[in-house]
Amino acid sequence: MEQIILEALARALAVGTPLLLACLGAILNERGGVVNLGVEGLMAVGALAAFAVAYPQGNLWLAVGAAMLAGAALAALHALATVTLRANQFVSGLALALLGTGAAGLLGKKFEGMPLFNKVPDWTLGGFALSPFTVAALVLAALLAFWLGSTRGGLTLRSVGENPAAADALGVSVVGVRYAAVLAGGALAGLAGAFLALSYRASWADNPTAGLGWIAVALVIFVGWQPLRAVAGALFFGFLYYLQFRLQGSSAVPTEVFSAMPFVLVLVVLALAGLRGQQGNAPASLGRTYVRGER
């Protein structure tokens, strides 16, 4: 029984790591008032950049940096479209998701089926094997929670997401803050992709993210835009993925039913959040374009 519990926890942590990293990035975006539905594409290009640099035995630190840079670079397109050109944030995010996953699928064709010989090794902490990415994700969640709630920078970001006109009147650069939030969020999504390429699978396959980016976007609402709650939410969905693999082949239920479990639960959770008024916790100016002087 103990072994089953440890296996479930290990799997939940493994699958929950990219969800947590991507969710933290999305929280940064949305606390600044910018919705980014392109997390799936950002993770995909991050995974590709990490694998391309690390294959076959490249520098892993450079691979991680490349993944974060790729995620931030692609996110910059979203910032340009939504903050500078004032395009619809939802449409831009969807376009970013399609662009990122399409580019990763096309450019990654030459790597399909190829293993990575120098994957990031796990750390053993208290007899428990953890990926360095998992430890980093947990630390980042704590740091982001502290930064948002207890520092001037966090207050500035939250003020831009709540009332950009008031922040602007106090001398805050709304454009600059939103650009920084979107780029930082893209870097974290790229880091989530690096985990998939360098630690979780350590090989390249088509569609490396497998829908995790979409779950991360929904997870932001599920946890009420709170970084520490995101840890529990990521573990919860990670455990669902563990159940999906655990139950496959052990019953007469078709495999597709188990594959759809996490996504069906996302819809259920979002529906319940709407009924409970959870979306009322969203930043007041989320998704709204800010134009100086307009009311």
Automatic annotation (TrEMBL):
CDD domains from the UniProt entry: TM_PBP1_transp_TpRbsC_like
Transmembrane segments: 12-28, 34-53, 60-81, 87-107, 128-148, 179-200, 212-245, 257-275
GO cellular component: plasma membrane
Segment forming the signal sequence: none
InterPro entries linked to this entry: ABC_transp_permease (IPR001851)
Annotated membrane topology: Multi-pass membrane protein
Name of the protein in question: Nucleoside ABC transporter membrane protein
